[in-house]
Design brief:
Blueprint lengths: L2 H21 L13 H7 L39 H5 L5 H13 L1 H9 L4 H17 L5 H11 L9 H11 L6 H7 L10 H4 L4 E6 L6 H11 L3 E5 L2 H13 L4 E4 L4 E2 L10 E5 L8 E7 L11 H10 L1 E9 L4 H9 L5 E5 L6 E3 L14 E4 L3 H13 L4 E4 L5 H12 L7 E4 L13 E4 L3 E5 L5 E5 L2 H8 L9 E5 L4 H10 L8 E3 L3 H10 L5 H11 L6 E3 L3 H9 L7 H8 L8 H15 L6 H8 L9 H21 L9 H20 L1 H6 L2 H5 L12 H9 L15 H9 L5 H28 L2
Helix pairs in contact: 4-6, 6-8, 16-26, 20-21, 21-22, 23-25, 25-26
């Protein structure tokens, strides 16, 4: 090789090393080409490599490194060409493998890597990637090639690999170099400081505390109506609609803002002084004289609690009126201490008395006008409503997935004194948002499926707060409200639940914002949105007053559309859409919406109509009704997205008209629900998990309702106790199929036992 060529190669190598040295952040180590450099420095007691660690790192929780996904590097190119090869000699893979394995097995290397943020898991993953890179890359970087060549020839020490290993680790795990920045972004310890506009004014906070039907919200709304400007924040669209209508009927112009709807009273679209909204939609930048935050106890909700925290800390209003359970008083007062704001408390007593009866209903034959049977599953509603109408009675039906218009229609039917419908069968959806003329609440079950803070579904006995919220609906239009259970054994349990005081609220929910996730993405550009959120929650710091809300639904949607090319902000917005992930048709529609959006093709009414097969006919069975409810949810999703991406979802008015037509079709189906149930064979034979009269348990439950639970009718061999069986199925501890299998096994065991007894009898003279 010529002298000029050598000089050229050396000059390139020097420029390369200078560039690497200046471009690498503090804490990345570079070894000289001299052999045993790191080894000698360690012997001298000096530390070559160091990563800046913040002074408070000892108090920080370690990150969940299982969330760190390594970036894949290309092995078919190199910026240095063959400089290293030309300066030294070819490297043999067998020798390289031995050298690398020696490096991996050295405890000192693992200890140093741990000090620089690589725990055992990350060290192993980084080594696997480093080894793959060294053995498979077309041409190694010149400096690394020279070091490895020296080690293979005995002129270097295996420890000299460490700086290059760490350089590689920080490339595939970019979060190692910006951990302090990520921790600062995810620091959620002082959420009050997120709202400087609210902190700039001295707000007056008034807490209206009382049970259901105590007039607490009424008093707050009266102040809201008297103000020059105001905002009402409620948990449900129905409640926002109610305040919207009440305000306008009182001569106070009021707009309506929900996730799926915007209604402005001004013909030119100018905002009114008052607005009624769902709590997620409230503006924390608009100044108001009065703000009303309803159902403040939901600040501890595992999924939605963040919205109440945001409203309470962020609303720019001179007066903040919060309404809710007395159990929230102490916590809200403590939360207001963090903002330096005092709180006034007004307490209210229930307007009409309420009592728990000493007798369970025990039979649907004992129902009377004004009764509401509360179930915790739609299957129970289907089964019980059919049995009620089989007795010649009419009943109204209300459950969560029904459209708001259908719920209001069924409520109106039940409330109408001239309508023959005097019985209501409902889920706990009646706990908020509907004014109902209920005389007696009947709990069909006290077991309800719940989702805990980890996102896990579990069957639990209802809490005192839930029992009070539901039973409190009784007596609004009567001189007294009553509560009881369908089954005798449940009555003492209900009395015990209601005898306890409501657990005091101790924490409030928080949720990462789009801006915080965008800052995370700046540091981790190759991470998926789901992974970004996971890392955010893992690194987040909250004080004892707060918790990070469950993000499983967000991650579910993020994973669903990860393969679709969207910018981060659009992807984030799509993933905050409130959809029911249990509905396959809704999830499929969400995916198609995102795909069409990514193509920059507007989602027109014709396109949506083809997707949902509009027009749709009246349901012939329960399956059809469930599908219509899913289509209604899809149209809701369109409307929700249309207010965030107006250009891409242009036909809002047409979709809303279609949704209203669909609501009428669903109302027609619900009015004929017993006919739909009869037309649905599977539901006639399927046991309901939470009800006393579901499916194949109907006869057993009927016998059970007409007889005391303590009595056992004489049964033929192999027949299980219907009381125990129905309760196990109702409480979700047994499925109907498993029950049938147990009955067969029990029958076999009894027959076998009978044969043994006969043999013993014959063996005696």
């Amino acid at each position: 090789m010529s002298v000029n060529r050598c000089m050229y190669l050396f000059s390139r190598l020097q420029r390369h090393i200078r560039t690497r040295t200046t471009s690498t952040t503090a804490g990345t180590c570079h070894a000289s080409s001299g052999s045993g450099f790191l080894h000698k420095q360690r012997q001298a007691g000096s530390v070559v490599c160091s990563i800046h660690v913040s002074s408070n790192s000892s108090s920080q929780k370690p990150p969940d490194t299982s969330l760190f996904v390594p970036i894949s590097l290309k092995t078919d190119c190199s910026g240095d060409g063959s400089v290293g090869l030309e300066l030294t000699q070819p490297l043999h893979k067998s020798e390289l493998l031995k050298v690398l394995n020696r490096f991996y097995k050295k405890k000192e290397m693992q200890k140093m890597a741990s000090d620089h943020g690589l725990d055992a898991r990350l060290f192993h993953q980084a080594f696997i990637s480093f080894r793959k890179f060294v053995l498979e890359v077309t041409s190694l970087p010149a400096d690394l090639h020279i070091i490895l060549s020296d080690i293979c020839s005995g002129a270097g020490h295996v420890d000299d690999i460490y700086p290059y290993f760490m350089r590689h680790a920080k490339i595939i795990f970019p979060m190692l170099d910006c951990m302090d920045d990520l921790r600062k972004i995810s620091d959620l310890r002082v959420p009050a400081n997120w709202y400087p506009e609210a902190r700039a004014i001295q707000r007056k906070v008034i807490f209206h505390a009382g049970p259901t039907n105590s007039g607490k919200t009424y008093h707050a709304i009266q102040r809201y109506l008297a103000a020059k400007s105001g905002v009402y924040c409620g948990p449900l669209k129905l409640l926002a609609h109610e305040i919207f209508e009440k305000s306008n009927n009182a001569g106070v112009p009021c707009d309506l803002v929900t996730g799926e709807e915007r209604t402005f009273m001004d013909s030119d679209g100018r905002a009114s002084g008052h607005v009624a909204c769902t709590i997620e939609m409230c503006s924390v930048n608009t100044p108001y004289e009065v703000a009303v935050i309803d159902e403040i106890q939901m600040i501890r909700d595992p999924s939605r609690g963040w919205a109440w925290t945001r409203a309470l800390l962020g609303l720019c209003a001179e007066e903040i009126h919060v309404c809710g359970e007395p159990a929230a008083i102490d916590f809200i007062r403590e939360l207001m201490y963090t903002t330096g704001e005092e709180m006034e408390v007004n307490t209210y007593q229930r307007l009409t008395p309420f009592k728990i009866l000493d007798q369970a209903v025990e039979s649907l034959d004992n129902l009377r006008p004004g009764d509401c049977i509360v179930c915790f599953s739609k299957n129970d509603i289907y089964s019980i409503s059919r049995q009620i109408e089989a007795r010649g009675l009419e009943c109204a039906v209300i459950y969560g997935s029904l459209p708001p218009g259908t719920k209001l229609s069924q409520a109106k039917k039940f409330n109408d004194p001239d309508d023959p419908c005097k019985i209501l069968v409902a889920t706990d959806a009646i706990g908020m948002g509907l004014n109902l003329s209920i005389k007696r609440i009947i709990f069909n079950s006290l077991i309800k499926p719940n989702v805990n803070e980890k996102g896990e579904k579990q069957m639990e006995t209802i809490s005192t707060s839930q029992a009070l919220q539901i039973s409190g609906r009784a007596g609004r239009s009567f001189t007294e409200g009553e509560g009881t259970t369908m089954h005798r054994d449940d009555l003492p349990v209900l009395k015990e639940i209601l005898s306890h005081s409501v657990d005091p609220i101790e924490t409030a929910g928080l949720h990462p914002t789009a801006e915080q996730i965008e800052m995370f993405a700046y540091h981790l550009p190759d991470a998926t949105l789901s992974n970004l959120v996971d890392i955010f929650v893992s690194l987040s710091q909250v004080d004892g007053m707060f918790f990070v809300c469950n993000i499983d639904d967000f991650k579910f949607l993020a994973d669903m559309i990860q393969h679709i090319p969207l910018n981060l902000r659009s992807r984030y917005v799509f993933c905050t859409a409130p959809i029911n992930k249990k509905q396959p048709f809704v999830c499929t529609s969400f995916l198609k919406f995102a795909r069409q959006f990514s193509r920059d093709e507007p989602l027109t009414f014709d396109w949506v109509g083809r997707h949902v097969s509009w027009p749709l006919s009246a349901p012939k069975n329960i399956k059809d009704l469930v599908h219509l409810e899913a289509v209604h949810d899809v149209l809701d999703l369109y409307l929700w997205l249309s207010y965030r991406f107006m250009d891409m979802f242009p036909d809002t008015a047409l979709v809303r008209e279609t949704q209203q037509e669909l609501d009428d079709i669903i109302q027609q189906g619900v009015r004929n629900i017993t006919r739909l149930i009869r037309a649905t064979d599977p539901l006639q034979t399927q046991g309901s998990r939470g009800g006393q009269a579901g499916g194949n348990n109907a006869s057993a439950s009927s016998n059970h309702l007409t007889n005391s639970r303590g009595q056992r009718a004489q049964r033929g061999s192999g027949e299980m106790d219907s009381s125990l069986a129905s309760r196990l199925v109702r409480d979700g501890l047994l499925t109907p199929d498993l029950l049938q299998q147990l009955q067969k096994e029990w029958s076999k065991d009894q027959n076998h036992q009978r044969c043994i007894t006969k043999e013993k009898c014959h063996s005696f003279p």
